[in-house]
Amino acid sequence: MRVYHTKYPVFGGMAAEPLPRWPQDDELVAEIDQDGRSSRDALAYAFHLTQNIEQSWTEHEDVRAFGTRRRSTSAGDAVALEDGSLYRCDINGWTPMGTTAVGRRGSLKRKIPDACGSEA
């Protein structure tokens, strides 16, 4: 999986803020092995691993960090799963954004309900 942090965070939630534009408003900050996890479990795992709780998330052994951004994943950020599906973190969970791979057909229509911000 790949974790992208928006260059223009919307920490207060996305309801009153303009949505970040994919991909120009996002920066790759981490890669994490999905290891066969379902979409829901993979998103929760990526969110959990990219939180600055007891230490910087960049120090976690399961994370390959990129760039210089060191904030926790929050509303407005995105995660691309290994199948190419792309999700945006919002205050009520993960919103599907389609796919990252050229040539993939269709997009996921359902929302993953577990709030990505529940552990922050």
Which descriptors would you attach to this protein?
24% strand; 6 strands; six-stranded antiparallel sheet; mainly beta
Write up what this structure looks like.
The chain has 120 residues and is mainly β. It has one domain (2-99). It contains 1 helix and 6 strands; from the N terminus they run E-E-H-E-E-E-E. It has one helix spanning 39-49; strands at residues 2-6, 26-31, 64-65, 78-80, 85-90, 93-99. Strands 3-2-1-4-5-6 form a 6-stranded antiparallel beta sheet, with no helix packed on it. Strand 4 and strand 5 (85-90) form a beta hairpin. The longest helix is centred in the middle third of the chain and has 11 residues, at 39-49. The protein is globular. The two termini are 20 Å apart.
How many structural domains can be distinguished in the coordinates?
A: 1
> What is the number of beta strands?
6
| Terminal-residue CA separation | 20 Å
Strand order of the largest sheet: 3-2-1-4-5-6
Shape field:
globular
H/E topology pattern: EEHEEEE
Note the total helix count: 1
> Into which percentage range does the β-strand content fall?
15-25%
